[in-house]
């Protein structure tokens, strides 16, 4: 059977095998130089096609996730935060907890790397073929309140229930009003044992009653989040303050304030 080049390219297009189509001659030449059998050549072509599709899927999923920055685990300074177990983070990067619909709480003061870890783990979860959505707590609550006021709360909750992992960053920096706390509870209930959640907070769980402005609602939220959960409490200095100390900015600021007070 003889097939001309244009016909073969057309077939590959119809089958949406675009990686093979776009690199056909080079791939066949590479297979020939390696003296691959027909079966090995077919496996080689499929491998390249799958790699291209995975690459495009990851790029698209990263955009959909709405990460504010690109952060990876390789860029996290574990030595600067000895309270964190690198092996535990590497285990979380396998995304088994996401497959199980568990919750992950990253707790600690500002600047210790909670958001960095949240984004980095979210990116790893995408590489494991799961969907992710990132949002700050304040942005999330604002969308829920707006949807509730417009009669679209059910629609919004359904949308937020879809990603396999929902990352909520910066919980606790600003308190919720009672209505917002109840809306947040509805979201947690919707995702309970169905979709994984990753929450970063500068407040210990014992302080969440203050965050939500209602100890009863806070207890109900924590009851669901902690049922199947991993809790990591980070203790240490702020990265940002550490860098300023190294540059001498904090010392200069302290000296300036001291002079002004005199």
Automatic annotation (TrEMBL):
Coiled coil: none annotated. Keywords: ATP-binding, Nucleotide-binding. It holds the Pfam family IstB_IS21. InterPro entries: AAA+_ATPase, DNAC/IstB-like, IstB, IstB_ATP-bd, P-loop_NTPase. This is DNA replication protein DnaC. SUPFAM superfamilies: P-loop containing nucleoside triphosphate hydrolases (SSF52540). Belongs to the IS21/IS1162 putative ATP-binding protein family. Gene3D superfamilies: P-loop containing nucleotide triphosphate hydrolases. The keyword ATP-binding applies. One of its GO terms (biological process) is DNA replication.
């Amino acid at each position: 059977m003889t097939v001309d080049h244009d016909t073969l390219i057309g077939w590959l297009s119809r089958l949406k095998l675009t990686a093979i189509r776009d690199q056909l001659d080079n791939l066949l030449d590479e297979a020939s130089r390696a003296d691959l059998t027909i079966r090995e050549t077919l496996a080689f072509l499929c491998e390249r096609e799958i790699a291209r599709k995975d690459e495009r899927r990851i790029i698209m999923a990263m955009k959909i996730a709405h990460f504010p920055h690109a952060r990876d685990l390789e860029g996290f300074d574990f030595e600067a935060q000895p309270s964190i177990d690198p092996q535990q983070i590497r285990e979380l990067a396998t995304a088994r907890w996401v497959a199980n619909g568990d919750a992950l709480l990253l707790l600690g003061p500002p600047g210790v790397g909670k958001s960095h870890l949240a984004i980095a783990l979210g990116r790893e979860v995408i590489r494991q073929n799961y969907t992710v959505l990132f949002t700050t707590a304040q942005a999330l609550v604002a969308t829920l309140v707006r949807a509730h006021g417009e009669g679209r709360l059910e629609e919004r909750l359904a949308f937020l229930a879809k990603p396999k992992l929902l990352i909520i960053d910066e919980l606790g920096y600003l308190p919720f009003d009672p209505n917002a706390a109840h809306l947040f509870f509805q979201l947690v209930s919707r995702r309970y044992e169905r979709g994984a959640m990753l929450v970063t907070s500068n407040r210990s769980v014992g302080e969440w009653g203050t965050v939500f402005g209602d100890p009863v609602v806070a207890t109900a939220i924590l009851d669901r989040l902690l049922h199947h959960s991993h809790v990591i409490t980070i203790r240490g200095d702020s990265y940002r303050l550490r860098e300023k100390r190294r540059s001498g900015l904090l010392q200069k600021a302290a000296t300036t304030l001291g002079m002004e007070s005199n």
